[in-house]
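Convert to structure. Protein one:
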Amino acid sequence: MNVTGLDRDALHIYVGISVYLLSLILLRPIFRKYSIRSFIALIMVTGIALLGEYLDNRHIITELGISGIGSVELRASIHDLINTCLLSYVLYALTLWTKIFQSITKPTRLLKQRP
């Protein structure tokens, strides 16, 4: 946090959207269909967010177990999960249920081929 100068909430948002977009790019050769690729990217964002929260709370979990997490830590973890995942889920929903990111015109050829 001191290196970037950003708040923790902003870092969570940037990490979440970066993981989502990077997953979409890296999974493109593996999954040609966008709906499958975006769903897997969403799973990856959620997994990274859960892993981050485990790492944040591992000192409590190793000492007291999962039941040792108090309401303050639980509230902070839920807040971090929402910050990390929300924008990715919104982008997924917009691409799945709307036509906001689809092209409205068909691409035309810039050069005409000679017969």
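Protein two, convert as well:
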Amino acid sequence: MKIDKRELEKPIVKKADGAFATLKEVLEGPVRVVASMGPEDYKDLALARFETMDPDKVISIVGKGSFSKDQILMEIKRDTEVGNIFVKMEEDFIKYLLNKRGEIDVP
């Protein structure tokens, strides 16, 4: 499975020490992670991942509009419906990547 190389540097899990590990760290070797992540962990991960977003890009949600990096971060921090959609989107993508990590071709 091919992924964008920028994905490797984005945080993907919470480590046992509370810091985030990137996808690259997870793929390279053993990383001690928390037993399970809760809603706040996924919110924090989504914020960290969207922080890496190109400020000139926008992401659209059907029926909700288009959002810049700053708007996405604000929506997530305010726990709005749109912010929760972005958090859920990242949570689903993170889970997908973790489930498929053995199939990822590292660029």
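Helices lie at 23-28, 39-51, 69-77, 81-99. The longest strand covers residues 11-14.
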